Structure formats: structure tokens, C-alpha cells
């Protein structure tokens, strides 16, 4: 197929960042739907095989008529700020040098606000003072998630980070100038002579990039004379 079409297969996560927004959305929807169908071939009540409808929008158990619809897991992604700096973190699975906003799944019974406060406290030991919703985005990894992006501020004078090394590799405060410079980079980067990797951020398609970009722009607007 690669020879015939003069192309090559690449990892889906990488492909998403090389497409325009419309095609990336179609691809992520298709991938999430195919994965959902693969994981729901049997009824959880009867154990019998389920059948999908023509459109592929649901599966039905013929023995009891239970209908199964595709579901997404809600995930909060939060950019924490102390007013002049923002907090970014990285997991060991991230490409070298890449940092992003904090993220975590909503637990059963939690509101978005409760999840944000818990995740920030668990991952970096900070107490959220206020928060603001930004936007949402469907994300096909690991198995179909609804990314709910928010800004959060911490209480003044309570900015000492306590990184939970079971969830994060590291976390740090970054200045406006550092983040603005990183937004212009397109990574991933190769290792430098001193053994380090340049600090860079997720690609433009990711909602974390847009969340960070908005914070930078707000900082610029607030610094302009009235």
C-alpha cells in the first residue's frame, strides 16, 4: 500500500499534528470510534456478542436489546498561574524537553472544579484560589477523552512546588518571556552539546498549546498602558 500510494504509515499521534484542524478532527473521531467498537463487542449484562448499527454510532445486544453508546472520559487540563508566572510540568513519557499544563481524569462524583483542585494539590502540592473555564477538545488518547481546559490561580505567597514524582517527572514556574519564546519553537529538538534539550510546548493543534498561548496574550494585554 505504501509503495502504491507513494506514502508511509506514521504513528497516529504524530499524524494529528501534521494535518489541518478539520482533517485532524475527522481522524481522531474515527480512531476513537473504532477503538470503542473493538472494546465493546460483547454485552456486559448477558455476555452475548453485540451488533453495531449501520452508522456505527451504537451497539445493541440482540438478547436483551440493551443499547451501548460511545463514551468519552472527562479530563481536566489546567494552566496554573501565580499572576506573573505559569506552572508547567512534564511526564517521563513526554518527548525530551516538552512541558505542558497539568492534566488528570475526573473521578466519579466530582465536578470539574473539584477535579482541578484535587489534581493540582496531588501533583504539585498547591492550593487553587480561583479558576476559569477556557475551552474543550476531543482527544483520542488513550481511548477517547474530552479535554476540559481551564486557567487556575494559586493563593499569593503559596507557590512552593512539591512535585509528586509518581505522576510527574518534574514541574517548574516559567516567566512570561520564557513561555512566549517556547511558543515560537516547533520541537521536538535534538540534544544540545551540554546534554540538555530546549524547552518547548505542545503543537498548535493541542488545546494545551492554545491554553498557554491565551495566558501569554493576557499577560501582554495587562501590561499595556490604559
UniProtKB/TrEMBL annotation:
It catalyses: NAD(+) + H2O = beta-nicotinamide D-ribonucleotide + AMP + 2 H(+); NADH + H2O = reduced beta-nicotinamide D-ribonucleotide + AMP + 2 H(+); NADPH + H2O = reduced beta-nicotinamide D-ribonucleotide + adenosine 2',5'-bisphosphate + 2 H(+). Residues 70-197 form the Nudix hydrolase domain. It is an enzyme of class 3 (hydrolase). Signal peptide: none annotated. Its cofactor is Mn(2+); Mg(2+). Keywords: Hydrolase, Magnesium, Manganese, Metal-binding, Mitochondrion, NAD, NADP, Transit peptide. It comes from the Eukaryota. Its EC number is 3.6.1.22. It is found in: Mitochondrion. Gene3D superfamilies: 3.90.79.20, Nucleoside Triphosphate Pyrophosphohydrolase. Its main location: mitochondrion. The keyword DNA damage does not apply. InterPro entries: NADH_PPase-like_N (IPR015375), NudC-like_C (IPR049734), NUDIX_hydrolase-like_dom_sf (IPR015797), NUDIX_hydrolase_CS (IPR020084), NUDIX_hydrolase_dom (IPR000086), Znr_NADH_PPase (IPR015376). One of its GO terms (molecular function) is pyrophosphatase activity. The keyword Hydrolase applies. One of its GO terms (cellular component) is mitochondrion. NAD(P)H pyrophosphatase that hydrolyzes NADH into NMNH and AMP, and NADPH into NMNH and 2',5'-ADP. Has a marked preference for the reduced pyridine nucleotides. Does not show activity toward NAD-capped RNAs; the NAD-cap is an atypical cap present at the 5'-end of some RNAs. Belongs to the Nudix hydrolase family. This is NAD(P)H pyrophosphatase NUDT13, mitochondrial.
Amino acid at each position: 500500500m505504501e509503495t502504491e500510494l507513494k506514502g508511509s504509515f506514521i504513528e497516529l499521534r504524530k499524524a494529528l499534528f501534521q494535518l489541518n484542524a478539520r482533517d485532524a478532527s475527522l481522524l481522531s473521531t474515527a480512531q476513537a470510534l473504532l477503538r470503542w467498537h473493538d472494546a465493546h463487542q460483547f454485552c456486559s449484562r448477558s455476555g452475548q456478542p453485540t451488533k453495531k448499527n449501520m452508522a456505527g454510532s451504537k451497539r445493541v445486544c440482540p438478547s436483551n436489546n440493551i443499547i451501548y453508546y460511545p463514551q468519552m472520559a472527562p479530563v481536566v487540563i489546567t494552566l496554573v498561574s501565580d499572576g506573573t508566572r505559569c506552572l508547567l510540568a512534564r511526564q517521563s513519557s513526554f518527548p525530551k524537553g516538552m512541558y505542558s499544563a497539568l492534566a488528570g481524569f475526573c473521578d466519579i462524583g466530582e465536578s470539574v472544579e473539584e477535579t482541578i483542585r484535587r489534581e493540582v494539590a496531588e501533583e504539585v502540592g498547591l492550593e487553587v484560589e480561583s479558576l476559569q473555564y477556557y475551552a474543550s477538545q476531543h482527544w483520542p488518547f488513550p481511548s477517547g477523552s474530552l479535554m476540559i481546559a481551564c486557567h487556575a490561580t494559586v493563593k499569593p505567597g503559596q507557590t512552593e512546588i512539591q512535585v509528586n514524582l509518581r505522576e510527574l517527572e518534574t514541574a517548574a514556574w516559567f516567566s512570561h518571556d520564557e513561555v512566549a519564546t517556547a511558543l515560537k519553537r516547533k520541537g521536538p529538538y535534538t540534544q544540545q552539546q551540554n546534554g540538555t534539550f530546549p524547552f518547548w510546548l505542545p503543537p498548535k493543534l493541542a488545546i494545551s498549546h492554545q491554553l498557554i498561548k491565551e495566558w501569554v496574550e493576557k499577560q501582554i494585554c495587562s501590561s499595556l498602558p490604559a
